[in-house]
């Protein structure tokens, strides 16, 4: 059975696993994200697996169409690198490199909470806040691969949304996250007005988050909005999402 090695890189942790044609994920490995030599860490991680026919890498930053990863805001020492070329040359298999939020959203749009929808927005609420958009089952990247990088929007105080989010620290409950959640949901609804929004990441799991999110989106900027917000139920959505394009080939 065909198996794809999917690797989901976050700002603080990496999750990897083998994905088969039935989207079952096995041989799962989880580890902290290296802040000093991420590329070497990924090469070593891939080298620890066998039995895969392709590699999918979901990265937390700007990914160009040719596989170049230019910037990872939540990884301190990272230089631009063509990760697709590096991995393909080393392991002699096809390689797919995607932004992590886009990989998450692709999985949700094809086999998750958005599988019956045309326009799906996915939001990862974690170390960073990433947004992905899938339209007609195709990932919308934008010209430079930065469509949905809404945490980098500069607000009226001349600080980015991510600066405010990081200053807040870790959230203990949904109420603490309310104003940050409201801001990012407003940006997504007014930019894309999707059929559904799917939340993933660590603070999407806070008690009451789904109820709060739906309350915050009934009226956006004075406009009535009917877009439902759902919490992801997929395990390892990022791993599955970055593997899916390779499984379809």
TrEMBL record:
Gene3D superfamilies recorded for this chain? 3.30.420.40
One Pfam family recorded for the sequence: ROK
Q: Which domain of life is it from?
A: Bacteria
Q: Which CDD domains match?
A: ASKHA_ATPase_ROK
Spell out the InterPro entries in the cross-references. Answer: ATPase_NBD, ROK
PANTHER family from the entry?
A: BIFUNCTIONAL UDP-N-ACETYLGLUCOSAMINE 2-EPIMERASE_N-ACETYLMANNOSAMINE KINASE, ROK (REPRESSOR, ORF, KINASE) FAMILY
Family from the record: Belongs to the ROK (NagC/XylR) family.
In Swiss-Prot or TrEMBL terms, this protein is called ROK family protein
Organism expressing this protein natively = Candidatus Doudnabacteria bacterium RIFCSPHIGHO2_01_FULL_45_18
Q: What is the lineage of its organism?
A: Bacteria, Candidatus Doudnaibacteriota
């Amino acid at each position: 059975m065909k198996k794809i090695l999917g690797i989901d890189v976050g700002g603080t942790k990496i999750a990897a696993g083998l994905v088969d044609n039935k989207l079952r994920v096995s041989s799962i490995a989880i580890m902290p994200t290296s802040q000093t030599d991420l590329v070497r860490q990924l090469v070593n991680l891939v080298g620890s697996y066998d039995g895969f026919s392709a590699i999918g890498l979901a990265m937390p930053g700007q990914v160009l169409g040719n596989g170049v990863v230019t910037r990872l805001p939540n990884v301190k020492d990272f230089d631009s690198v063509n990760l697709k070329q590096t991995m393909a040359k080393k392991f002699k298999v096809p390689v797919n490199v995607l932004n992590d939020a886009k990989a998450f959203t692709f999985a949700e749009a094809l086999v998750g909470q958005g599988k019956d929808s045309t326009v799906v927005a996915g939001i990862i609420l974690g170390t960073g806040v990433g947004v992905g958009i899938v339209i007609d089952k195709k990932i919308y990247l934008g010209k430079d691969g930065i469509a949905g990088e809404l945490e980098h929007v500069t607000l009226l105080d001349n600080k980015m949304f991510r600066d405010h989010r990081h200053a807040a620290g870790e959230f203990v409950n949904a109420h603490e996250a309310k104003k940050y959640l409201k801001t990012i949901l407003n940006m997504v609804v007014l930019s894309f007005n999707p059929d559904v929004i799917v939340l993933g990441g660590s603070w999407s799991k806070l008690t009451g988050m789904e109820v709060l999110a739906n309350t915050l989106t009934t009226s956006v900027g004075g406009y009535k909005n009917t877009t439902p917000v759902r919490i992801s139920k997929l395990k390892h959505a990022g791993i599955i999402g970055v593997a899916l394009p390779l499984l379809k080939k």
